[in-house]
Amino acid sequence: MGFCRHRHNSTRRECEQRQKQHLRKELCPGLICSSNCDISINISNVMPLGDHQRQNAVTASCTALCLRNLGWDISEPSIQAGLEETQLPGRSQFLTQEEASVLGLNGSSTVLIDGAHTEASAKALSDVIETVKPEGPLALVVGMASDKEHLAFAEQLLSEVCELKTTVLFSEFSASPLPDIVLLTEASIAGGNSRTMPASSLKELWIAAAQDQGIDHMDIGTVSGMETPECIGNLASSSSSSGKCMLIGCQDAPFSRGLIKVASQLLESRGADGAAPGLICVTGSLHLVASVLQHLEQQ
């Protein structure tokens, strides 16, 4: 395999791109990694949602086809079946209604769990939410480790809204919905709290991100996960001088399933009569997502 030299008319990026193209042709000549594909595999039914997961499916398919070229007995139907039956717990995973009921929900909200914890994965999560196009209100339940880029993560999940404000007239633009509720919690990392980011600190960062992006919001303080209906009603009616706004609160304690129930009740209280079910997205850490799945397994 040859490598190109950097000349005056060749940038480093162009050189690296040519190297990657050359490598793909060496590994997968004439297959899905090449521009001259002689095979067609449908990835429209891949279970994990999002363009990033479809790209992962393409990469996995390419690998399988390369192995087949080396003599492995791998059929196209097997690859297709593998793609369609693959499930990634905690990655763009929608809980069933039965699973949601274990968390104390009555069917008024759908729950999405995703272990996104970086700026890039937050962008991918935004794309997933935009793909499913929830008609009802949106709540985020977020817990993170202390060594992550917390502000960049928050800004990414809110950035689509700001981009929408700068849309050129007559152009089409699709954006993830603005969260109605953001509840910060504490994710137990590897069974302990030494690497846990305090929920109160996360809340301050989310408030800063909302302020930077000009998003109308209100700090509702601390929630316990055991609020009374009257308390929920008072929190849901919180508003700013300009009307209904995004509510940001925190649970200064390890995540409990009661927090998801509070998120659902807040969404229900803020929604209009006959409104579509809300969407609750639990994200920020694979450890937090594991806590949700653990609650389901204990039932």
What does this structure look like?
It is a single chain. By secondary structure, this protein is an alpha/beta fold. Helix content is 43%, strand content 14%. It contains ten helices and nine strands. It has helices at residues 12-27, 51-69, 76-85, 97-102, 119-132, 150-165, 199-212, 229-236, 257-270, 286-297, and strands at 93-94, 109-113, 138-142, 181-186, 217-222, 239-240, 243-244, 246-254, 278-283. The protein starts with 11 loop residues before the first helix and ends with a helix. Residues 1-12, 19-37 and 161-174 have low confidence and may be disordered. Belongs to the folylpolyglutamate synthase family. Keywords: ATP-binding, Ligase, Magnesium, Metal-binding, Nucleotide-binding.
Summarize the structure.
InterPro entries: Folylpolyglutamate_synth, Mur-like_cat_sf, Mur_ligase_C_dom_sf. The chain has helices at residues 12-27, 51-69, 76-85, 97-102, 119-132, 150-165, 199-212, 229-236, 257-270, 286-297; strands spanning 93-94, 109-113, 138-142, 181-186, 217-222, 239-240, 243-244, 246-254, 278-283.
